[in-house]
Amino acid sequence: MRRAICLTVAVLIVVLSLAGCRSIEVPDPAEQDDRGPWWDVEQAEILVWQADDPAFAQEMALEGSGLVAHDGMLLATSEKYAHVLQIDPVTLKVETFVMDLPQYAEIEGLTVDGGELLLCDEANAAVWAAGLPSEKTNGKLGVRRLELVGFELSGGKLGVEGITVDQGPPHEVYLVLERTGAKEEGCRATIFKLSRQEDQLMPSADPLVIPMEDCNWRLTALQFWNGRLLALKTRYPGERYEVVVIDRETGSLTTVLDMTDLLIGVRNDGWGNNIEGVTVTKDGSLWLISDNAMTDKARTVKPPPARDKTLLMRFPPLHLPRVH
Fold first, then answer.
1. pLDDT (tens digit, 9 = 90+) per residue, 282-309?
2. Is 61 within 8 Å of 293 (Cβ atoms)?
3. pLDDT digits (tens, 9 = 90+) for 204-249
4. Could you tell me the domains of the chain?
5. Among 28-32, 50-54, 227-231, where is mean pLDDT lowest?
6. CA-CA distance, 186 to 130, in Å (whole number)?
7. What burial class does residue 5 get, using C-beta atoms within 10 Å of its C-beta: 0-12 exposed, 13-18 middle, 19+ buried?
8. With b meaning 16 or more CB within 10 Å and e meaning fewer, what string describes 47-70?
9. How high is the pLDDT of residue 33?
């Protein structure tokens, strides 16, 4: 709903109703908040962390992929090096935790489900459960593979790229397949809606099939926040970087933050801008992490030096939407 403000004196209302009244449309504040942008691009900041293991400093090719806020910390994954990074968003100190995963696993996303992590593995078309990082684990996280029942994933370079949990009700796991298809037929992203029963994942509803404008677009990094399903929608070549809200019934996308110009600019300053992780902390800040290298398969136990640095970026809240 919009309100019109008449730019004439009240005594002329009758006359002006015949002659017409010039008006200015003023957006309703609640509607404006829901439209976005919800975060402040101009006040975005790049943050530099201090890792307990120098191999996971931002100058190394650690390939950050997946990001989730939990218990006052940020948890990120090193895609090809089987590590979870626990980042303190205040002190920017990082603790690293190694996972006992198969060789050449590619962990593209993570989320928290109850008292453990769920991680999606693109190379093995798998979902793993792992313990949460803590002092008691001595820098190690045990893992186990969840059984996929009633649906299949295929491994490869265009596979599962994000996972999140709607605590519900209903309690559902969402898993995104970044892109399938070809130029001739068109490309689409797919989001699976799953229920979890102990160590099994099975469909709880039909998947969302989301057409992409062309086959350079993809959808990654799912995140539930304030009753909304967020994702990263990115394009390359023809760079575009957006945060979108996904309608969980129709699959329609609404852009709530366009970061394209900013992220093209940071690449010129030596930061990798292939963003693959997004989360929102309790203060309403939006955080991003980037995959800063293009490694086919990890050839070393820990990351080598990289050309571009891993980007950790914070966007302060501008005006946040109502809670759904």
1. 999 999 999 999 887 787 889 999 999 9
2. yes
3. 999 999 999 999 999 999 999 999 999 999 999 999 999 999 999 9
4. 1-33 (no CATH), 36-315 (2.115.10)
5. 28-32
6. 36
7. exposed
8. eebebebebbbbbbbbbbbbbbbb
9. 58
Residues, the chain, total? 324
- Return the structure tokens found at 81: 């090096």
The token pair that represents 20 in the structure block: 């017409």
